[in-house]
């Protein structure tokens, strides 16, 4: 072992949670903090240009390049499963949409944990504390925080017409999806600053890195946690840097802690390699069991989007604008001169939250609408004018899993989201496709003669629509829940309500894996809010 140093806090993973933790915990100059990241620095230009996600996903420079298992609910297909491997983590490659979810999401966390600190009211205070909102501060939004929330810097006529059609279909117009009830249609707010992507490395780590009490180690893959099998104290971490096995120790005698922020996939891998997980899974791999916690890697939840594509006439979309050399030149010039236009685009511009059926108690589906279309991610845009209306079930009842099947820290895990595995999810999928058709049939879009290209009008019955959902469904990159927090009497709860690992001392998991249930929207901002909560706990002690 080399490079043995001792720190008050060791943070594993410099993503949406880890970068915030590093900023908050180093505010006390007497605390030494180590931040370990498997990826490289975020000085790759495509990370910072908003449309650059196209060149970051499935690129080893910024992505772990995971894939799912073949999914029965997706008619046997496997999906790319991007996870950030770079400073900023998934915030460096995600869709930049700023979304908190619904008030009811947080009330369900209170029910799951018995801890009112997770209530909507308390969560809202945390969001406002790190927020720098594009308008004046008010009862819903904060001003002056590190995290810039901006309006998008472009509009598309086809998006405006879809918005009008959604209103005609009974979905009210909205200018803010972050007030606790996001029912409505409007343009998303985005995590950008003056037309550039804002990742958590830029927002939180850049200032913290100037502090002498923060050490950042990149390109270092954590092998496992150092845990005393007798006392169950987590007192450090083993990692691999430049082919060398290294270790860092945690000053647990002074109240130090190891904070695992590897994400809903990565944190599971590290816990299982360290002997924390289901004994039934670890024993065949020859891993000594330190804590038999069957919930590790279970309870995987994700948002499955159903990408419906409609051809249109008489109105321009990005398909035709970006398919000519002149068009591409003009797009590039607009971004260089104004930081606006298609290169400033989040992957989805227009959003809508709706009820798939009247029996739902709150909006249960989310739309990501785009003025473009393509066969699948990474391929060229279609040659015809079209838009895409992707719809996802916000509160899926399907539960999947992620587990290692090798002790090699570079080996990919087995990711099985188990999409569309419940009757409820299949029902909502069919309802969602019908709702999209209802919106597109409204008068606002009629002049453009929308024609359903995917999945196709031949799918009509519930059974046919579920099959269609399996054909066009793809992840929207929101895995959560694999180390869920919960009450002491919940045998599947990996964490208590303060995100401490059950049965292990001085170890917390601080990332989206802690969510007992998925939020009703995009998951980056809730992950930052979770980190803010743990920072509160640690800095007040």
From TrEMBL:
Keywords: FAD, Flavoprotein. Residues 7-304 form the Glucose-methanol-choline oxidoreductase N-terminal domain. It comes from the Bacteria. Residues 396-531 form the Glucose-methanol-choline oxidoreductase C-terminal domain. Signal peptide: none annotated. SUPFAM superfamilies: FAD-linked reductases, C-terminal domain, FAD/NAD(P)-binding domain. InterPro entries: FAD/NAD-bd_sf, GMC_OxRdtase, GMC_OxRdtase_N, GMC_OxRtase_C. Its cofactor is FAD. PANTHER family: CHOLINE DEHYDROGENASE, MITOCHONDRIAL, GLUCOSE-METHANOL-CHOLINE GMC OXIDOREDUCTASE. Belongs to the GMC oxidoreductase family. This is GMC oxidoreductase.
């Amino acid at each position: 072992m080399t490079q043995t140093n001792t720190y008050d806090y060791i943070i594993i993973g410099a993503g949406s949670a880890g970068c915030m933790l590093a900023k908050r915990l180093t505010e006390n100059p007497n605390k030494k903090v180590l931040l370990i990241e498997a990826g490289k620095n975020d000085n790759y230009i495509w990370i910072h240009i908003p449309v650059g996600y196209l060149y970051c996903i499935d690129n080893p420079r910024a992505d772990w390049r995971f894939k799912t298992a073949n999914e029965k609910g997706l008619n046997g297909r496997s999906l790319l499963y991007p996870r950030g491997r770079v400073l900023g983590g998934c915030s460096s490659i995600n869709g930049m949409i700023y979304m908190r979810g619904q008030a009811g999401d947080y009330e369900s966390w209170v029910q799951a944990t018995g801890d009112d600190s997770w209530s909507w009211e308390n969560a809202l205070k945390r969001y406002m504390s790190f927020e720098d909102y594009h308008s004046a501060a008010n009862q819903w939004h904060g001003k002056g925080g590190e995290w810039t929330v901006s309006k998008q810097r472009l509009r598309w006529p086809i998006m405006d017409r879809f918005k009008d059609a959604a209103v005609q279909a009974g979905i009210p117009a909205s200018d803010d999806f972050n007030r606790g009830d996001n029912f409505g249609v409007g343009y998303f707010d985005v995590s950008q600053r003056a037309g550039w992507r804002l990742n958590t490395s830029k927002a939180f780590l850049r200032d913290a890195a100037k502090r002498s009490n923060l050490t950042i180690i990149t390109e270092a893959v954590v092998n496992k946690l150092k845990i005393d099998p007798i006392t169950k104290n987590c007192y450090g971490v083993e990692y691999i840097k430049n082919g060398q096995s290294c270790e860092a120790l945690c000053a647990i005698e002074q109240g130090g802690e190891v904070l695992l922020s590897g994400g809903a996939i990565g944190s599971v891998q590290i816990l299982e390699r360290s002997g924390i997980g289901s004994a039934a899974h670890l024993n065949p791999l020859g891993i000594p069991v330190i804590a038999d916690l069957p919930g590790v890697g279970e309870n995987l939840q994700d948002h499955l989007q159903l990408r419906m594509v409609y051809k249109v006439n008489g109105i321009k979309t990005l398909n035709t604008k970006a398919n000519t050399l002149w068009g591409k030149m003009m797009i590039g010039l607009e971004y260089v001169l104004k930081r606006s236009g298609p290169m400033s685009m989040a992957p989805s511009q227009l959003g809508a939250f709706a009820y798939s059926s009247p029996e739902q108690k709150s909006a249960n589906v989310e739309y990501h609408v785009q003025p473009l279309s393509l066969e699948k991610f990474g391929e060229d845009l279609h040659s015809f004018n079209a838009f895409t209306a992707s719809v996802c079930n916000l509160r899926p009842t399907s539960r999947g899993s992620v587990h290692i099947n090798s002790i090699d820290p570079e080996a990919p895990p087995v990711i099985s989201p188990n999409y569309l595995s419940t009757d409820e999810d299949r029902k909502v999928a069919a309802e969602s496709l019908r709702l999209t058709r209802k919106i597109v049939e409204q008068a606002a879009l009629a002049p453009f003669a929308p024609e359903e290209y995917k999945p196709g009008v031949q799918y009509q019955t519930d059974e046919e629509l579920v099959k269609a959902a399996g054909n066009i469904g793809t992840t929207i990159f929101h895995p959560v829940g694999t180390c869920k927090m919960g009450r002491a009497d919940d045998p599947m709860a990996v964490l208590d309500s303060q995100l401490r690992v059950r049965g292990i001392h001085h170890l917390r998991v601080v990332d989206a894996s802690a969510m007992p249930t998925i939020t009703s929207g995009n998951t980056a901002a809730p992950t930052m809010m979770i980190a803010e909560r743990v920072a509160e706990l640690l800095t007040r002690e």
